[in-house]
Amino acid sequence: MFDATKMLADALGEHLAHTYQRTFGSREPRYAEIIEAAARLTIERIVGSDALYHDGDHTALVTLVAQDILRGRFLQEGITPEDWLHMILAALYHDIGYVRGVCAGDRARAFVIDAQGTTVSLPRGASDAALAPYHVERSKLAVQERFGTHDLVDAARVIRAIELTRFPVPEDDAHRETATEAGLLRAADLIGQLGDPLYPRKLNALFHEFAEIGVNAELGYDSPADLAERYPSFFWGKIEPVIGDGIRFLDLTVEGRGWVANLYAHVFAIEHDRRRMGPHPGPGPI
User: Which positions ≥6 away from 161 have C-beta within 8 Å?
Assistant: First the structure.
């Protein structure tokens, strides 16, 4: 049987491991094995999720951006194999908390949301997107369970990076950094979504995830078209201020510049009414 899920998991794992080996050669060869295994595991788990937007494709894109940021850092300032390993693992695991059943404390109808074992129940018919308010903590729990006793992985370091993917960005000193490993993971998370060539097509899925937890009403979005139309102001006000350091490193490689070009192309297309995919804008000139 043609299994697209397995193909994505295998291809991503092989690509990440190969890029690590091409960058560092024979240094710390076990790191390549850890990265490849983690990619296969996380993708195979996430593709089983029924969240419409935060899926395996999202995780793969974020991880690829994280890798290209690392390549830029390697060229400009030099980084260690340990730096590479921990950021890639953080990218792979940053949204694993959306998946029901991924944490050891999960039960059939109750899902753990913190280190103290507190659980929540979801309404009938809920998808994994209903865990959005708790997914960062759940992702951190999953990392601790998987790598807490690992001899080569510093689970606390991965957890720290995942914490900074929390969005909207909390207005405190702990979340203000943008040029650190954790700050750059946040940039990868945002650029991996918004620099996706097909990002406008995914706005319908994002709207329905928002609707499941009531965020659309809080933001005043009545339809997916509102997400598209208000995207430029959202980008310039909330996204651009925290991704500058990530863009600085992406600009150092051909692949990285591709992400940056896509990122700003979407803003331009919507600002100038040139969008050709995504939510239908409604009646207007032919």
Answer: 86, 87, 90, 94, 181, 182, 185
Task: Tell me which amino acid residue 246 is.
Answer: G
Spatial separation of the C-alpha atoms in residues 209 and 205, rounded to whole Å:
6
Beta strands 119-120 and 111-112 are antiparallel
Name the pTM for this structure: 0.95
Show the tokens assigned to 152.
């080569």
> Which of 209, 207, 253 lies closest to 230 in space, CA to CA?
207
4-270 adopts what CATH topology? Catalytic domain of cyclic nucleotide phosphodiesterase 4b2b (1.10.1300)
What was the pLDDT predicted at 286? 54
Query: Cα dist. 35→89, 137, 160, 234 in Å?
Result: 7, 22, 18, 34
Sign of CA dihedral 92, 97, 98, 100: positive
How much is the pLDDT for 285? 55
C-alpha 58/C-alpha 32 separation (Å) is 22
* Pair 193, 206: CB distance under 8 Å: no
Which residue type sits at 282?
A: G
Backbone angles phi, psi at 100, to 5 degrees: -65, 135
Q: Report, in angstroms and rounded to the nearest whole number, the Rg of the chain calculated over CA atoms.
A: 19
- What residue ranges do the domains of the chain occupy? 4-270
Ramachandran angles phi, psi of 232, nearest 5°: -55, -45
d(CA 190, CA 262): 13
Q: Which of 21-35, 144-158, 267-281 has the least mean pLDDT? A: 267-281
Q: Which of 181, 178, 157 is nearest to 70 (CA)?
A: 181
Q: What is the tens place of the pLDDT at every residue in 210-223?
A: 999 999 998 889 99
CA distance 258 to 265: 10
